Amino acid sequence: MLGKGVVGGGGGTKAPKPSFVSYVRPEEIHANEKEVTEKEVTLHLLPGEQLLCEASTVLKYVQEDSCQRGIYGKLVCTDFKIAFLGDDESALDNDEAQFKNKVIGENDITLHCVDQIYGVFDEKKKPLFGQLKKYPEKLIIHCKDLRVFHFGLRYTKEEEVKRIVSGIIHHTQAPKLLKRLFLFSYAAAAQNNTATDPKNYTVMFDTLKDWCWELERTKGNVKYKAVSVNEGYKVCVRLPAYFVVPISLPEEDVLHFQGHGIPIWCWSCHNGCALLKMSALPKEQDDGSLQIQKSFLDGIYKTIHRPPYEIVKTEDLSTNFLSLQDIQTAYSKFKQLFLIDNSTEFWDTDIKWFSLLENSNWLDIIRRCLKKAIEITECLEAQNMNVLLLEENASDLCCLISSLVQVMMDPHCRTRVGFQSLVQKEWIMGGHCFLDRCNHLRQSDKEEVPVFLLFLDCVWQLVHQHPPAFDFTETYLTVLSDSLYLPIFSTFFFNSPHQKDINMGREHQDTQSKPLNLLTVWDWSVQFEPKAQMLLKNPLYVEKPKLDKGQRKGMRFKHQRQLSLPLTQSKSSPKRGFFREETDHLIKNLLGKRISKLINSSDELQDNFREFYDSWHSKPTDYHGLLLPHIEGPEIKVWAQRYLRWIPEAQILGGGRVATMSKLLEMMEEVERLQEKIEERHHSQGALPAEGPSLLRSSARLSSLFPFALLQRHSSKPVLPTSGWKALGDEDDLAKREDEFVDLGDV
Fold first, then answer.
1. How far is Cα 190 from Cα 184, in angstroms, rounded to an integer?
2. 413: phi > 0 → left, psi -120 to 50 → alpha, else beta; which?
3. Which residue has the higher pLDDT, 671 or 32?
4. Cα 482 to chain center, whole Å?
5. 114 by DSSP, 3-state: which?
6. Which residue intervals define the domain Myotubularin phosphatase in the entry (predicted)?
7. Which of 72, 104, 273, 369 has a CA positioned 20 to 30 A from the CA of residue 251?
8. Burial track 262-280 (b if 16+ CB lie within 10 A, e otherwise)
9. 534: which residues sit within 8 A by CB, 6+ positions away?
């Protein structure tokens, strides 16, 4: 049969070397290229997308085991993606069951999603880059979303192999100019077709009104004000056009050091305390310049630290926390655990999984981030202190920690619209350098650090531990992480609002050219049909109960747990000299000099943290109040849906959370039907969860990694290494046990 090449897998004690045996001769393949072409899937191009190179008679291998099985088709490269076009049986008759992306297909890889490219030469795997003297017989592509693609080029014409391999290497690895990104080609071509979702209520924070609304929502407008001093980016291109500062801060102070050394408001707590951030002043060697900076910071500090009424605690994230290098190094090791080439490699590494996971240090970094956020939450909630986050540019770890604190303390940030607004406020308008941190231009690997992915992983820990508290699902977080590499949305492809505006043509409105209208990632209708979007919404979310007028009277907007927390009064004003010394600490921080001690001793911080943490976890959970994660070792888990979804061996057939969710949705649907009968509502609009079960039940073979992994093939038995395994029985017994499990799963 044309299109399939198979070699039988060996059991035995040692996995056989991969080898390819075709049922058709090479000359038959070339003689029937026309027939192959007729079976291929049509290449769908987006507006502005151009085909660059292609190769026919390419074999896409099935990532299953040491057997070399696959599908013949055409491999193409455009200025947007790499795509394989073939007659894939697994994709047929499965439209309803698949969680399909309208922009990117199952066999598509955006150029920005390519992580590493390898070639196989005489069964040896080598990384590919630059100009090649010899071309591989097999191409392996590792993706940033952790997919792994294997393409066989043995029966592809030599000229086509050179063209497609060179094209893929060049267009995924060569440094680019910002204006040459597909984002701009797409925006220009689709200028009249950019329909937006009318139900997208995400606050973009690109107007003064948006900031005033957020101040009013958090009751922060008593002590803080939104300013337009940077309108048109006259003061600083790093800051947004509008932001919030203390009311007592003169606006002219923002001009002194181009926005550096200014306390910028992030969020206000119910008790009036605020979370602030500040970027460090440029380092100066001249004594006169240092004295000017010191006097300036002394005045700034007095606007936010006025004991005994207001006390501020500084958190220097540049010197007393993680480094960006720590994050990048840990993730580089961590992601290798999931870039699995075949089943044999999976089972080989499975024996030492926990030691490899621990050595990567990724889960420990997540734990440290959550712990730091809880410490800051304790200062705001229990000690009634303002917290000032310090960082060199206040655009990496400041974004991460301030966002986590708000997710824990503000239930609005746990709704989908609230979470999207939070990302807009703290990350997009906060100046996080997505272009550099995601290395979209391929100009410097040193700048690439997955800070935003780390944030999503931290949020996933909270979602996993407290599902009813969140309006969105882990699937939402997963597709949001995938959207980092989709260059049709402007959200994650600029370093600052200024960079976006100037490249869209918005900064100078007097120009004749019409400003580009770039899409935002928050319009989920661009990527998913309404039915698929239902999997982004959590049907178990507990909505906040509506209070009648009688209940509202005399009520203060506080977290429900506040009365049970070990609250401490603001500390009485100590000797005058203490605050002089405290001010000096802040100044030294901002001038880039290390300090030998914190304002509070580490022992006192640990005691306060432990008391606060234990007290909260000893009480029932209020899903609309303060929300703290468990951070003990076993409680920090691997985000399985994102990291394991492409590995068939890691799936649990008919198990995992999806099985529980399916049953719960069925029960919810039944309850809703009964309510409709009682209320005699024959034509009810129907709540969103009522549609869910049909989507989940549409496939009889759900896996634990649904909706990304649906098992369409029979489970293959593992190739177990002999070393380190004893008393496991022979392979026939193992296969029988697995078959029994599959039968139970199908039931």
1. 10
2. alpha
3. 671
4. 7
5. strand
6. 205-643
7. 273
8. bbbbbbbbbbebbbbbbbb
9. 688, 691, 692, 695
Whether 687 shows a pLDDT value over 50: the answer reads no
DSSP track, 531-594: HHHGGGB-TT--PPPPP-HHHHTT-----TTGGGS---PPPPP--HHHHHHHHHHHHHHHTT--
The CA–CA distances, whole Å, from 557 to 103, 217, 276, 354, 411 equal: 43, 11, 21, 45, 12
Going 411 to 417 to 423 to 424, the CA torsion angle's sign is negative
Strands 70-78 and 81-86: antiparallel
Tokens of 70: 């696959």
Encoded amino acid at 724, one letter: G
What is the DSSP code string of 17-74? PP---BSS-HHHHHHTHHHHHHHSPPPP--TT--EEEEEEEEEEE-SSSSS--EEEEE
Among all chains, which residue has been given the structure tokens 């959590």? 538
Cα 45 to Cα 48, 75, 82, 184, 441, distances in angstroms: 8, 14, 12, 15, 22
Nearest 5°: the CA angle 201, 228, 507 is 75
What SS3 string covers 147-190? CEEEEECCCCCHHHHHHHHHHHHHHHHCCCCHHHCHHHHHHHHC
* CA-closest candidate to residue 167, choices 79, 104, 85, 106: 79
Asked whether 461 and 474 are in contact (CB, 8 A), the reply is no
The residue type found at 705 is L
Over residues 130-135, the mean pLDDT reads 94
Residue pLDDT, tens place only, 299-346: 888 889 888 888 999 999 999 899 999 999 999 999 999 999 888 889
- Token reading at 521: 């990632």
DSSP symbols for 257-316: TTTTT--EEEEE-TTS-EEEEEEPPPP--SHHHHHHHHHHHHHHHHHH-BTTTB-EEEEE
Nearest residue to 263 via CA among 253, 228, 385, 399: 253
Instruction: Note the residue count of the chain.
Output: 747
**Per-residue pLDDT tens digits for 202-255:** 999 999 999 999 999 999 999 999 999 999 999 999 999 999 999 999 988 888
Contact 472, 416 (CB under 8 A): yes
Which letter does DSSP use for residue 320 in this model? S
Strands 51-61 and 148-152: antiparallel
Q: What is the DSSP string of 626-651?
A: ------SGGGS---HHHHSTT-GGG-
> Distance between CA 423 and CA 403 in Å, rounded?
8
Domains of the chain from N-terminus onward = 51-174 (2.30.29.30), 208-535 (no CATH)
> Among residues 489, 569, 561, which one has the least CA distance to residue 197?
489
**CA proximity to 243, closest of 496, 489, 441, 550:** 496
Distance CA 24, CA 5 (A): 8
Q: Give the confidence band of 512 by pLDDT, cuts at 50, 70, 90.
A: low
The three-class DSSP label of residue 218 is coil
Q: Which amino acid is at 517?
A: N
pTM of the full structure: 0.83
Angle (CA) 733-4-159 rounded to 5° is: 135
Neighbours of 675 (CB within 10 A): 12
**Tens-place pLDDT, residues 476-499:** 999 999 999 999 999 999 999 999
Q: Which residues, other chains included, contact 732 with Cβ-Cβ below 8 Å and sequence gap of 6+?
A: none
